[in-house]
Amino acid sequence: MASRKSDPSALSRPVTWVRDLLQRPLKLELRGAQLHVVLGEKAEQQAAASTGTSAGEALRRGHGELHDLLRRHRETRQLMRHLAFVESEIGRFGSRALRREIPVPVLRKALEQFDLLVQGAPSEGLIYLRARMAEAVELRGRAIEIDEDTETRPGSLEVMEASHSLFDEMEKSWTGQVPLDAANSPARG
């Protein structure tokens, strides 16, 4: 008599079917006057269909195309150093490079170099990368302009030597108080 050995794939099919069933969301449908509970599509299929290309994926694609472009023309890395720097920083930090890491003047110059290098009909990835660079220059440039209106920007503080008596006089005018030396003197008593 032949022994029956169970096929391992046959045993896993019901488990897989139940797991797939439990991963599907429940939906309510109105059919006529009745409310029905139905199973929706798998969450993975729904997410893949709705998202398309994410912003991170588009930035990676644009970075890859810029990297290939700079690799094809080796002398470009030496001639367009700002653009080469931006490309390497995006490779290291991703979108954080555009948001924080790269100084705005470098981004501005890299954008000019990008326009010189990429002429004609650029690909979607390069168009997206250029748009992200321009957006970063716009947003961060505006923040710098706002900061330049304050007295905290570099170079806005002027320091010069003064005598002790001039300092005491200025201190009185700032605080409206008498300096400690004058408060402790016997003439005040």
Topology, number of strands: 2
Q: What Rg, in angstroms, do the CA atoms define? A: 33 Å
Placed side by side, the strands forming the largest sheet appear as 1-2
Assign the structural class, choosing from mainly alpha, mainly beta, alpha/beta, alpha+beta, or little secondary structure.
Answer: mainly alpha
Biggest sheet, in brief?
A: 2 strands, antiparallel
The SSE string, one letter per element, is HEEHHHHHHHHH
What's the structural blueprint in terms of helices and strands?
Blueprint: H1 8-22, E1 26-31, E2 34-39, H2 43-51, H3 55-72, H4 75-79, H5 81-93, H6 95-101, H7 104-117, H8 124-148, H9 164-175, H10 180-183
Antiparallel strand pairs: 1-2
Helix pairs in contact: 3-5, 3-8, 5-6, 5-7, 7-8
